[in-house]
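quick one
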Amino acid sequence: MTKVLRSGIEPPKVKLVTEVWGPIKSLMAARRNILEIIPEAATKQPIVSGRTGGVRWHMVMEPKAIGRILNENLDIYPKSDVTKNLLKPAIGDSMFIAEGAHWRWQRRAASPVFTHRNIASLAPIMSAAADATCARINAASDTVDMYEEMVAATFEVISNVTFSGSGAMGSDAVHNAINRYIDQTARVSLFDILGLPGWIPRPSRIFQPNALKQMKRIANDAIEKRKELGAKPVPDLLDLLLEGEDPETKRKMEMAELRDNLLTFIVAGHETTALTLSWALYLCAFDPEVQEKLRTEARSVLQGRVATADDCAALPYTEQVIKEALRLYPPAAFISRTIQADDMLCGRDIKRKDTVMLPIYALHRHHDLWDRPDQFDPERFADGHKPERYSYLPFGDGPRICIGAQFAMIEAKIILATLIARYRFEHIADRDDPKPVMVLTLRPEGGVPLKVTRL
Ligand code: HEM
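structure w/ protoporphyrin IX containing FE:
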């Protein structure tokens, strides 16, 4: 059952392309905001193909064909070469970019790190970050940029579950190094991810070797110290990964593999979760009725406390709101692959070396898959309702589905429920809505400044 919202009122969306654009116009638009090169047809058709700068590409929005790419025919759809070459200096040949046997053993060795029990034992760090956010909001004026706040909160979580607390090294040094490192990785242009040729001018240039070197050195030191000192009283991701072993080959991660996978968790997990929370808070301000319902749930469960992992099962509406925010504004709005052998998708020939893109943003607003696709309506996910497989992919799917999805969902629930129980979030008169812009992730341009009232 779906509820009808204020008809005609939709949260901000990207204006998709409705006419045929030449390469120069496409590139100019893509430079501003890569989402602007998605043809509107991608929200109505199963597949859209084209050629840009000599690269043949296909955007695929048909669930069965997506299943073929992400699951059944995974081996001929590896992540795009360019993605790998670009990210390699920052995250090595870690789980995120490795393929075949080298990916498989790392994934098997790391899977136990993310069991529900392990995440629940790390959840007090998430609750502490939620509490610290409240303290910052209390000390601020009544207008707060909630995007900045959510970046700070999720940063605190990810740095405290990776390299912090490793003996002699101060946590400030770790925080600073991680910050500079994240700043560098965020400079990778989406042009690179899509595999567009090198002569197209990039908005900014890639890594400064020094920042990477420094982060790697700090990470190596932290791992050495931790080996010496033994695990923290509550094992964090570093401790758990140190213990991890591939059950089939018994292989354990060496120093560089441990380091690169932990750095991957930082890059993949920090900003994505901050964006989920920022858009969810924006949507709560957009729809006060939803916000009130969310608050009623949070208050009755929390009774003035900060949320914990144990509360999560009792917060189903909070989960619905987060899922709907992930549908409208998926942080990883594009997934791209370079096909290794000819194939057929939706009746169309796909040639070896073509770029295959899954524009998650368009998939989540596809007219054949969603009723009133551009409207905000958390009721879509009521009573555990699951959308058709491969039509909702905020975390990808198949064997390479996000390993941190549950970690991110628990973190988002704890922070959102704690904040909504304590504050009212409202749109600021005369301020424009944030504009969804795809940099490496789907960010709110202009931040998410909201009027925040303590209750
Ligand atoms: C809301 C937050 C998050 C979103 C939206 C998200 C999204 C995604 C997506 C879409 C993929 C698949 C990419 C592809 O197939 O090309 C992915 C993979 C991955 N994510 Fe996440 N992620 C989030 C949080 C996290 C967290 C918290 C961590 C770790 C602490 C993490 C670690 C990873 C890793 C290691 C992979 C690669 C897995 C593999 O290839 O086996 N992510 N993520």
